[in-house]
Amino acid sequence: MSGSASAVTMQSASDFLMAGRVEEQGTAPLPPYHLPVLPAEVEHWMDVKPGDVIIDGTLGGGGHSEMFLAKQGIVLGIDRDPQAIAHATQRLASYGEALIPFEANYSQMEEHPGLPASGKVQGILLDLGVSSHQLDCAERGFSFQKDGPLDMRMGPNAVMTAADFVNEASEMEILQALREFGEEPQARRIMQLIVERRRKMPFTRTGDLAGCIESALGRHGRTHPATRTFQAIRMRINEELTLLHRALHAAMRCLAPGGRLLVITFHSLEDRMAKQLMQHHAKPYIDDPTWPAPRDNPEHYLTLPVRKSISAGKAELTSNPRARSAKLRVALRNNQPIATP
Q1: Domains and CATH numbers, the chain
Q2: Contact (CB, 8 A) for 318 and 232
Q3: Lowest mean pLDDT among 41-55, 75-89, 107-121
Q4: DSSP secondary-structure letter at 67?
Q5: Does residue 233 contact residue 164 with C-beta atoms inside 8 Å?
Q6: Alpha-carbon distance 341 to 339, whole Å?
Q7: How far apart are CA 86 and CA 227, in angstroms?
Q8: What mean pLDDT comes out for the span 12-39?
Q9: In the predicted model, is pLDDT for residue 4 greater than 60?
Q10: Rounded CA gap, 58 and 127, in Å?
Q11: Whose CB among 121, 149, 169, 243 lies 3.0–4.6 Å from 173's, allowing a Cys bridge?
Q12: Do the strands 53-56 and 121-127 form a parallel or antiparallel pair, or are they unpaired?
């Protein structure tokens, strides 16, 4: 496979998705759910061949899976959101048993009932972040653009809601979340604001929390002052970085030699984790200052066909502005066996 996708490949992926060829079941079309990001780049680097088994760890609306199924691949779809599982299963029903859905978190990919006997697959895609449907659905409580319950759970098995965290977490827990997951420069001030306000009345609505932060900090520029806070709370209650770390290690165990790992991130914390892990496992040698010479890396499991992240082009950004922060990283599994502990 060449190092860059051809113009024909890029156009075919875009045309295929925009056509929505399996969007109808019977006579009534399904409502839009989620427009997948970087479709042409994903199609190119996943390079699905007939019979390949692909894990789509974030099934969502099924846009990426649809491309893999159209290439006659077998897709093991994973999502912890039962609404996403139901929608994608209905939307992709014409592919029959080639789609095997599994309601779970992507860190549980090794438990997928559709895994081959070998436990190995030819490709894994992790498209991180929140889907357009989740953002646009006020009842899910992910966004402050539409007032709704302060929920933010990606699946019904999440330990707590956003309201639980905001109203019950300690000052230190809130401060740590805002700093670690939101990289919020006003973390201490926002923490104090939340604690002072919840003593009078608990937070229950997204609009209430966002409005409280805006009234205290003011609004400067296009970015809402509550943006980083909402991101931090969402990542904290859904354990996103912890589960991503587990998923990346599980992916290496699940990939067959030559298998492709594609990770799409939407902010710096996710991208940094994916980048650092991939780079570590792509090094054949470890430069350890305590050793007289570089030594073999016992965890040299990956090869990086492109060392930098891949971003959306101008054409995609015109039709899907939410792709502007998306970054795709690609790694190939080599033949090095993973040592058992």
Answers
A1: 7-133+240-333 (3.40.50.150), 159-237 (1.10.150.170)
A2: no
A3: 75-89
A4: H
A5: no
A6: 6
A7: 29
A8: 52
A9: no
A10: 6
A11: 169
A12: parallel
List, for residues 140-170, the tens digit of each pLDDT value: 445 556 688 898 887 767 778 999 999 999 9
Percent of the chain with pLDDT over 70: 84
Q: Which residues of 314-327 are buried (b: 16+ CB within 10 A; e: fewer)?
A: eebeeebebbeebb
Report the pLDDT value the prediction gives residue 35, as an integer from 0 to 100. Answer: 77
Confidence of residue 21 (pLDDT cuts 50, 70, 90): very low
Q: Judge contact between 270 and 334, C-beta under 8 A.
A: no
Distance CA 106, CA 125 (A): 10
Query: pLDDT value at position 83?
Result: 87
CA angle 332, 333, 339 (to 5 degrees): 155
**Pick from 1, 112, 17, 97: which is nearest to 55 by CA?**
112
Helical H segments across the chain, by residue range: 7-19, 39-46, 63-70, 82-91, 132-136, 162-168, 171-180, 187-200, 206-217, 227-237, 240-254, 268-281, 314-319
Cα(162)–Cα(224) distance, integer angstroms: 18
Residues in the chain: 341
The tens digit of pLDDT for each residue in 125-143 reads 999 966 544 544 545 445 5
**Percentage helix, strand, coil for the chain under 3-state DSSP, each rounded to 5:** 45, 15, 40
